[in-house]
Amino acid sequence: MTSDLLPPTPGPQMTSDLRPQTSLRCPRPPAEALRGLRICFITGTLGQGGAERQLFYMLRALHAAGATLRVLCLTQGEFWEEPIRALGVPVTWVGRNSSRLGRLWRIVKEINRDRPDLIQSSHFYTNLYAVVAGRVLGLREVGAIRADVFNELKENHPLFGRLCLSGPRWLAVNSQVGLRNAASKGVKPAQCLFLPNVVDTDHFTPATRQQTGTTRLLFAGRLAKEKRADLFLDVLAETRRMSPMTVQGVVAGDGPLLRALQERAGQLGLLPTGVEFRRSVSDMAALYREVDILVLTSDWEGTPNVILEAGASGLPVVATRAGGAPDVVRDGETGFLCDCGGVPGLTSTVLRLIGDGELRSRMGGQGRRFVEEGHASLRLAQFLAEIYRRVLA
Question: 297 by DSSP, 3-state: which?
Answer without folding.
Answer: coil
